[in-house]
Prior knowledge:
mainly beta
Amino acid sequence: MISEKAPEDQKLGTAVKNAGVEGGKTSTASLRGGSAQTMPAAAMPRPGVMRPEIVRRAREYGTTPADDRSMGSYGDGKKLIVGRDIELNGKISSCEKLVVEGKVEANISECREIEISETGTFIGEAEIEVAEISGTFEGTINARDLLIIRSTGRITGNIRFGRLEVERGGQIEGDVKVLKSEL
Length: 183
């Protein structure tokens, strides 16, 4: 039993020392009349034992400047996804990446990358850096850096590119030209 005249710290320490241990669990009752709490014996505070503070690493952010337009430096901040069974008409500008899974009839400018999935169709004009085509593209495409046509991809129209990759099965039909590199 705890003496009524003992200081609060002494009461708590005595209550912890006198707590019953059953099946690896320790049960203590609050000194102020609260309900009993059950916790593993290993979690009980032990005199003279300090628990180390868990140091968490600060989240690392990219160190590349915001205007660096090298591949992979862009985040997903300005990403537009047109899902399956969705149709979009109009003008698209200032997006970092356009992903087409449905149907898009538009002109796209000031964008970095377009990805057309196997289920996607793009009809219109695209002025971009990188294009990856797994679906259908009809119109004018100007891929200043890289044009990738996957095995399920099909492009028809005016096609301009800096570099070209075509997988076996990929199709190109129309006026095809390589862009002259700037020296």
